[in-house]
Amino acid sequence: MSMRPPMVGRFSSSSFTNIGSASSWFEVYASFSTFMMLLRTAINDLIPLKLRNFIISKLTRFFTDYQPNNQVSLQIDQFWDGSTNHLYYAAKEYIPTKISNTYKSLKVGKISKHNNMVLAFDGKQVVEDEFDDIKLKWRLVENSNNGDGFDNPKKEYKEYKHRSKDYDENGFVLSFDEKHRDKVMEKYIPHVLSTYEAIKAGNKTLKIHSMQSGPWKQSDLTHPASFDSLAMDPDLKNSIIDDLDRFLRRKKLYKKVGKPWKRGYLLYGPPGTGKSSLIAAMAKYLKFDVYDLDLSSVFSNSELMRAMRETSNRSIIVFEDIDCNSEVLDRAKPDKFPDMDFLDGIKMGKNMPPRKFTLSGLLNYMDGLWSSCGEERILIFTTNHKDKVDPALLRPGRMDMHIHLSFLKAKAFRILAANYLDIEGNHHSLFEQIEELLEKVDVSPAVVAEYLLRSEDPDVALGALVKFLQDQEIVNEETSQEV
User: Fold this and answer.
1) pLDDT at 23 (0 to 100)
2) Which residues contact 325 (CB under 8 A, 6 or more apart)?
3) How far is CA 374 from the centre of its chain?
4) Which element (helix H / strand E) includes 19?
């Protein structure tokens, strides 16, 4: 006796041809719903949750990554041959500008010292862009800089315990129709880069980067100094601003004469004369990030080259207090630190090699072959004792402009007093007496500023300053008589 299979859940093409009423349609719907419920129950019972999620993720990625044969993909990694890929950071800033109100997946945050909320591209949804009738798609890829065939900068930091969080960043993939390849490379990519520069110039929060026995670490540059607030001789201030403006507009000239687009400044003078404030004012005026490099933390020429290679274009690189570094002292004078290499080796431990950073390595970066690594850069060296610095560092092409920040004199004092005391019309009965004393006494702007902060009453603050300057004048006279 043959057994007929149950009819529940079975339907064939003939079933559809015999459907002639609403009740028949309902039977088909009920059968199909029952079948789907049984299938769903079977899947949930037989396949573990982790395996189901894995299968779903693979299917999702397959359909997301699929693209027709006529599509071209450009992968943009954070690093290229061991150096920073500036196109990556340009894309990172550019993509959020193309996120519309219909975009459903975003990262949002509020950063200290930022007034507005910050939006970021999280990669869960493709971002579409249109440029000259070209449709383009941006998506995020994970760990794109691993195993890319180029030098991996992570290897360079394996001796350090702390690595920069930027090394865990992702990369981007840009997709478009192959027929637009030339226009994308020649127009769209430069458009992304120029948009990035405009964003940085208009809304950028300046950063200061520091490096001490490891990769660069950054924080916001919050120094309040500006050219308007600097207590500096107005003629010197204007000459610095003019020099900066001339540097910015001479890109074509530098290229024409075959020189790297960079300029070097030497800031020298006694402590407290405003070297750090001038650097901050220059950074704000140019809208350049600052890289503050402590040469005492550099232990080899290769490490110096690596650190310089990771600095960005449109930046100020600062080498502070170079007279405190034995490698840049005048070689014609006796070495005050003859055993520095040996002591360095002891300080850093038995397994740490002696110091190998050399003056020639620094000079090679300033105007040798390595000087072309990057453009539109300002190099600033500071020192309290210019006469101690090796003349090889001081010549034009390395330090193009020498800026002497001296003790406070009359013109600069007027600016300082106006900033601190808000004196109406910038006139006071004690100004002339103070200015006469400043011509006789060497005192730094930092010392005078301290007296101006002691009271909000201009008469009290300036009276205390007069008393201090008079005491200093007496001390100077007594000292000269003893000599």
Assistant:
1) 72
2) 295, 296
3) 14
4) none
Alpha-carbon dihedral angle through residues 476, 477, 479, 482, given to the nearest 10 degrees: 170
**What domains appear along the chain, each with residue ranges and CATH number?**
71-143+168-203 (3.30.310), 209-329+355-404 (3.40.50.300), 410-482 (no CATH)
Name all contacts of 394-401 with Cβ < 8 Å and 24+ positions apart: 394/266, 397/264, 397/366, 397/367, 398/264, 398/363, 398/366, 398/367, 399/264, 399/265, 399/266, 400/263, 400/264, 400/265, 401/240, 401/243, 401/263, 401/264, 401/265, 401/266
CA dist., res. 316 & res. 209, Å (int)? 10
Question: Each residue of 71-130: pLDDT tens digit?
Answer: 889 999 888 877 778 899 888 888 888 876 666 667 777 766 566 666 666 667 788 899
Rounded to the nearest 10 degrees, how much is the dihedral formed by the CA atoms of 126, 149, 165, 111? -30
In the chain, the amino acid numbered 17 is T
Pairing of strands 289-293, 315-319: parallel
Going by C-alpha positions, the residue among 257, 455, 282 that lies closest to residue 382 is 282
Q: How many CB atoms lie within 10 A of CB 159?
A: 9
Whole-model pTM: value is 0.61
